[in-house]
Amino acid sequence: MLRFMKNKILIPLMIVAALATFFSFRYSAEGTSADEKKRVVIETVMKAIQQNHFAPREVNDSFSSNVYKKVLNNLDFDKRVFTQEDIGKLSRYEFVLDENGADNFVSFFNDVNAIYSKRINEIEGYYKDALKKPFTFTGNEEINLNGEKVPYAANSADLKDRWHTYLKYRVLSRYVDMKDDQKKRQDNKDTSLKKIKTDAELEAEARESVTKNMDYYFKRMRKMKDDDRFTLFVNSIAGTVDPHTDFFPPADKARFDEQMSGTFFGIGATLQNDEGKIKIVSIVPGSPCWKQGDLKAGDYILKVAQGNAEPVDIQGYDTEDAVKLIRGKKGTEVRLTVKKVSGAIQVIPIIRDKVEIEETFAKSAIINTKDGPIGYIYLPEFYSDFQHVNGRRSGEDVAIEVMKLKKSGVKGIILDLRYNGGGSLSDVVSMGGLFIDQGPIVQVKGSNTSAVQLDDQQKGTLYDGPLAIMVNYGSASASEILAAAMQDYKRAVVVGSTTFGKGTVQKVLSLDEYRSWLASIAGGNTSTGDTLGAIKLTIQKFYRINGGSTQLKGVTPDVVLPDPYSEIEIGERRDKAALKWDEIPAARYSQVPNAVNAAQLAAQSSKRVAGNPSFELIKQSAAKIKKAEEENSYSLNEAKYRQQLEEANATAKKVEDIEKKATQLNITNVKDDLARINLDSSSINKNENWLKALKKDIYLSETVNIVNDMMHMDSRVNLGTGMK
Description:
Helix content is 43%, strand content 15%. With 724 residues, it is of the alpha+beta class. The strands form 4 sheets. Strands 18-15-14-11-10-9-20 form a 7-stranded mixed sheet, with helices on both faces. Strands 3, 4, 5, 6, 7 and 8 form a 6-stranded antiparallel sheet that branches. The radius of gyration is 28 Å and the shape is globular.
């Protein structure tokens, strides 16, 4: 979400007469019954969406069906709770939730909640019985973990069998880990290994470990109150409108504030509970896990260990409890067992430390090539300190880096926006102005308003030499705006993979203030009684200067490089409720003189990529990741299960081996930065780690080749007329 837009955009004024008619229920200062409060929450949320959302869905049978399916999916994505018998009882609600105000919604919630609670109690008995007896892993059983691919269990007996298979899979996974760990310690002659355990003893320990995890999971499920499930229910309604519209009850205020403030926990990663699994949402640049390098957004944490202690299986944990295990004292080690998108399992050791905020600032380096030096600018986010007049702003910092690179005599510049999730809109505009003379950078439009054009109005260009912008699926919002603008002006070549596709703006609206306002308009009692919470609504969209939206489609690079996730839907496109791509009239702009010949650059790059073994392996990996996502099926035979794990890890290992043998980039620091870098051993070490990672970056290496191609295509490099 762009912070500038979040602070500056106001909710559009609503038509008073229409709302007076629309507002038809009463509030009591004495509070309400449980069902009445649910009804009030749902009606207020629905009205807030209908009156304020950029593109509210029509409330009809289709909307009803989408909400119905989303509720069931959010409660039981893996289809290990509801049976087909349960669905048969609930199916009467599928096409009637749009009728009778909020009454049918409340009835549906009460019924689905009652069935869910009953099934959880039954399942608790299943796991206790199943884990009492040893498992054998020599048969031909398989388990499919893709909830979309499996039907609901037919009845209670079928559900019990499904849980038996699932628990066997969990025990097998733990058993294989323990067996491999023991062998590794034997091979390394680990003196702390006092006894060699038999396979039967290891299997028993694995069952004990899974039992403890299940005990914790069901303890958490019992702690989950009706209000918690109601929050999920209301968010299913909100999420049917678009992925960025969310309901926050009063009790979730602290959690919401934490999410919005970007608070991180000891290793520098934000976590999210994704249908019972702990998922890495993002990595803070410069943080401990960023420096370690192996943990990536999209990874799932399976286990957490304190150094070399026994790992704790956290599948089924909620986010807060997982965070408690990951937190720790500075300098201590935490080991995360993670599952990659490819299905590979990896143990990642991370030394805890505080997150260095300075590492989120722009910084540069020089890449030395036979054709001359090329400047590299790393920008992890579009930051801007709005609270202080002299606070740091990314637009100004990038300008400073450009001037340092010009002073160093670079022949071209690479701006790296990979994994840059966005930030300040005003800095996007000022940053774009560094590379063009003047003109529009982006258009912003509400649902019932004309587009507002945001321009770089200062004449002059700081730098107009060869420019490449690196992006990937993690480049979102503000990153997409800048890349799109430079692409439309043909000012820069955009390199990498298709971006995230978030082209929307959100604003938080207090439901209590909103319903009080509605009541006053209707002439009713403005005393609200019980509090309702807040809703985050999508209220505007961004558009490129060529008129196309950045929403959903993102930005397609001029030069597309192989990406491990290229074969699967990722980013905004993954959510069926995402707002559609559209376009508005283009802004008035002219392409720059000496425009980039993107087609020729792409053709030259394609020849190099075709002969690069690392990129060829990445293509193979993409196909495997697609297959793994579609099938998500695992054997419960130990030998076959091990083979699946080995295949999942094989490509990654090959890429790593090739990278070790490849010629690394020659990268040095800008002379103006040396005094700051050599200030202390910590700064020196951080800088060395940063340069080390860049030197073996195959995507950066190919982008360097592309910039060299640009220099050969046009030997004239005008370094600009000075700072604007």
